[in-house]
Amino acid sequence: TDQEIRISSADLDLSFDATKGDDWIIAGQIDGFDRPDLTITRLSLDGSGNISRVDTGTLFNFTTQFRADGLAPADPALAQALGPTVTGSASGLWQEGTGNLEFSAFDLVATGVDLTATGKIEGLSTGIAVTGQATAQLADLARLSAIAGRPLAGSGNASLVGTASILGGTFDLKAAINGTDLRIGQAEVDALLKGQSRVDASVLRTETGTDLRNLVVTAATLKATASGKIASSGSEIVAELNFADLSAMGRQYQGALTAKATLTGTLQLGKIIFDGLGDSLSIGQAEADKLLRG
After folding, report:
1. First vs last C-alpha separation in the chain
2. What is the DSSP string of 63-101?
3. How far apart are CA 216 and CA 222, in angstroms?
4. Which among 162, 189, 205, 173 is positioned nearest to 249, based on CA atoms?
5. Mind listing the pLDDT tens digit for each residue in 204-253?
6. CB 264 within 8 A of CB 234
7. DSSP state of 32
8. Most CB atoms within 10 A, among 18, 171, 245, 291?
């Protein structure tokens, strides 16, 4: 970046003496971090570990804690999402000759956000591949409203497990998202998301395309599923909808709807086949309700 960075003061203390043992300790602090898009009153880092020799080379173990106080991004939306303080910790090891960095624990806490993860970063010198799992707790989605550009509300949690190649763009992931009383500022959707909602997905992306092994969305009386393959040479996606009671979206909606849609071919020249069955449908508009009756 070309942005100028200024700091008021910095202090770093690293202690390690191989003649006295394998242990190391680090303590650092930066005050008055200032650049046009971000200011931080104080950044601090504390850590310890040991450096030892094994048959395959040097083994470096670490446990660190970090903290940012007075965090103030210039972007008001980002500032609202992060809050003024971010703390975290990380533990793991690096072994010479493997090119791997392993995290036995990683925790990051911001206002209303709690992220935990474990995993391994491989191929640091040849191309980065990440394997691991992560969970996130979001106590109040309203803090993300400015970033999303719409009024959000509710709480949720998410989990992710799998592998990904950063440079290659391939991945094999499974994800689950749970929401409680979610709102996005759209009346029908907000009514549908009242209470518990959930999204489960399993996706594999390779050099030849994307395999959507499973996608399941449940909310109130709605269940939707999808699966299939997406590729530039041709895709095939099947989606099914089971909406047992449309009144979950509001009083003007009534009835039940089941549907199935299939997309084949390329996204530009594909063919969609849709088959749906409605029972006593009503959407609160007299002319449309007459057509949907039955």
Report:
1. 63
2. EEEEEEES-EESSHHHHHHH-SEEEEEEEEEEETTTTEE
3. 10
4. 189
5. 999 989 999 999 999 999 999 999 999 888 899 999 999 999 999 998 99
6. yes
7. E
8. 171
